[in-house]
Amino acid sequence: MNLQIEVKTAEDFVQIAPIGEIDVYSAPTFKEELFSVIQNTNKNLVIDGEKLDYIDSTGLGVLIGGLKRMKEKGLSITITGLNPNIHKLFTITALDKPFGIQREA
Amino acid sequence: MDRIDLKVPVKAEYVSLNRLVSSSLAALMGFDIEAIDDIKVCLGEVCNQCIQLAALEEEALEIGFMRDGDALRMEVAVGVNDDLDETVNNGLEMSRLIVETLMDDFTVSRENGQIRIEMSRRLEA
């Protein structure tokens, strides 16, 4: 599977860095890791997208599920470092609005 | 027109292989990097749609790549049950939105027990 997931806990937030591709095959692995982190934290979540090469609608669906769970806990998800082609998918699907997306140069 | 046909098991693990074929052919035709990425994304989305819609006993996705002048045409077909669950169908809206936005043409048809999704992208002048 072309996906690795790194999780780091900082003072104010938890960072998840998916490395590689989140697609219909790897999305269940990403979902399991993301939902486990959400279940076990009371900190806001930062998803570092800098090393995310590809995401499809299955992966976007997992992120939506994660955001819903975070909002139920009064917490947020911020996504950083997305490459332009992936950011475009968030714009097309209007997911750039509910997520806090920070674009980096 | 040159045509390449693949017959690929209806399994999620092979979608990345299908995406690779689409991006390789798009690169060969001279699409720029952004367009190649769009084409790869859309082929992946259409394969996802067909895998979710496929009848349980269905064994293969039929994928056609056509180099048609300045256009790359792709089609994916799979057998579906007659009583295809419309709730499954409706759950694919986000995927379809992506493909409709990124490709020049996108059509879905159903005949002879198959769903066939066709799409194309032309080289920009």
Descriptive account of the structure:
The complex is a heterodimer of chains A (105) and B (125). Chain A has 105 residues and is of the alpha/beta class. Chain A has a single domain (3-102), classed as 2-Layer Sandwich (Transcription Regulator spoIIAA). Chain A is 36% helix and 31% strand. Chain A is built from three helices and six strands, in the order E-E-H-E-E-H-E-H-E. Chain A has helices at 27-39, 57-72, 84-92; strands at residues 3-9, 13-22, 44-48, 52-55, 77-80, 100-102. In chain A, strands 1, 2, 3, 4, 5 and 6 form a six-stranded mixed beta sheet that branches. Chain A is globular, with a radius of gyration of 12 Å. The mean pLDDT of chain A is 94. Chain B is of the alpha+beta class. Chain B has a single domain (2-122), classed as 2-Layer Sandwich (Heat Shock Protein 90). Chain B is built from four helices and five strands; from the N terminus they run βααββααββ. Chain B has helices at 15-29, 33-53, 86-90, 93-102, and strands spanning 2-9, 60-68, 71-79, 105-111, 114-122. Chain B has a five-stranded antiparallel beta sheet, with helices on one face. In chain B, a hairpin with a 2-residue loop joins strand 2 (60-68) and strand 3. In chain B, helix 1 (15-29) packs antiparallel against helix 2 and helix 2 packs antiparallel against helix 4 (93-102). Chain B is globular and about 45 Å long. Chain B starts with a strand and ends with a strand. The mean pLDDT of chain B is 91. Classes of the chains: A alpha/beta (105), B alpha+beta (125).
